[in-house]
Amino acid sequence: MHASRLATVGAMASGVAHELNQPLAAIATYAHACDRLLSLPNPEIGEVQAALREISAQALRAGDIIQKLRNLARVEESPRAPADINAVITELSDLIRSNAQAHGVRYRQELAPNLPTINIERAQIQQVVLNLVRNALEALALGRVDARELVVRTRATPSADVEVSICDNGPGVDEQLRYRIFDPFCSTKPAATGLGLPISRTIVQTHGGALDYRPNQPTGACFVVHLPSTWPN
Amino acid sequence: MQDRAPIVYIVDDDDAIRAALRLLLKSVGLAATTLPSAQDFLASYNPQQPGCLILDVRMPGMGGLELQEQLNLRGAIIPVIFITGHGDVPMAVEALQQGAFDFLQKPFRDQDLIDRIQRALSKDQTERSQLRERDLIERRLESLTAREREVLDLVIGGKPNKIMAADLGVSQRTVEIHRSRVMEKMGAASLAQLVRMVLDLKGGAATAA
């Protein structure tokens, strides 16, 4: 199962963000110190020069970290194969169900029959679905205790493409955050990286699809993965 | 010992941050001791040394919160200023609940840090002088005889000498002698001062419990 890759990427990116803060804090502190040292009556120039050299070394350190982040976030082009989205979701059912149970959430699956075939990198799309499921379970943990529900649906769109929606009846996305949730580092969860949704969207987009949010009715969040079908090719 | 210059301890696992902070503090005339880990700090910590502690929340090995817990267990009064990274705010809140003096999010404005350090040092100084005063009063209380202690309690209770003499079954003159011995041993210039000393001690003990 490759599904843990996205979680791994997320955890690593969190570490990287923390790492990046270190040289930035050091640079800011050295710069403040230089400013103050130079304001003293008889500044020791050697001391200030040493601090300036440290500043450039720390800037290089920050650059290295950003390079690492870039490598991490790059979504590799990999071989795609025709797939039935229902089969792709069904493979995840047990995992999703047991996760949902662990969170005290009822899991429902509504898979429409006879959907068009899609051309996908299976593991990547599964990572996206699992990431959205995990977001939903975390959101539900914040909501009211009874009748927590997670629903994964598949359907054909009017234009004969395929749609997977991951919906919960949790608190939903705050109206003010609604248009920023796909921005990197826009996380409302303290321990999160703020990269889960942006990376998921990137993966879906490289498949020629789209990942969007809409509020669920009467409450909650729906994330909709839109994937183009290979039909009529 | 009472007049030792304060030291700002900096505990952070990042070499560059330690060095940068040390230089910043030097630029404003503050002495700093830097340590790369919580364990190193605990090993070299001297409770007699006035100062404050700048502590990174996230460190390999013992983290900042754990070090704070250890210090709390040892009854250390050193004020702790936590430095946190992005997304560590819940940790900072926990630290404050555990009695941390303050916290700053990285990267921070130098003046914010310096202001907090100055406030922490002045808090440390105030607490240390209060502790010294309490110690002094306690030692003086211990120097009283049992009878003098009785007289003290009655004096604090606002009893006139005549009533006290009756209560203790001694002459008023004897009460007066005990009373002046109590004032002398406690170093109190007035009844009001004596009352304040004893009440401060009790009040302090009540809040520390």
Description:
The complex is a heterodimer of chains A (233) and B (209). With 233 residues, chain A is an alpha+beta fold. Helix content of chain A is 49%, strand content 17%. Chain A folds into two domains: 72 residues, Four Helix Bundle (Hemerythrin (Met), subunit A) (Up-down Bundle), CATH 1.20.120; 147 residues, Heat Shock Protein 90 (2-Layer Sandwich). Chain A is built from five helices and seven strands. In chain A, a hairpin with a 5-residue loop joins strand 6 and strand 7. In chain A, helix 3 runs parallel beside helix 4 and helix 4 packs antiparallel against helix 5. The longest helix of chain A has 35 residues. Helix content of chain B is 59%, strand content 11%. Chain B contains nine helices and five strands. The longest helix of chain B has 33 residues. The interface between A and B is medium-sized, with 28 and 23 residues.
List the helices and strands and how they pair.
The complex is a heterodimer of chains A (233) and B (209).
Chain A: H1 4-38, H2 45-73, E1 81-83, H3 85-102, E2 106-111, E3 118-120, H4 122-142, E4 149-156, E5 162-168, H5 196-206, E6 210-215, E7 221-227
Parallel strand pairs in A: 2-4
Antiparallel strand pairs in A: 1-3, 4-5, 5-7, 6-7
Chain B: E1 7-11, H1 15-27, E2 32-35, H2 38-44, E3 51-56, H3 64-73, E4 80-84, H4 89-97, E5 102-105, H5 110-142, H6 146-156, H7 161-168, H8 172-186, H9 191-208
Parallel strand pairs in B: 1-2, 1-3, 3-4, 4-5
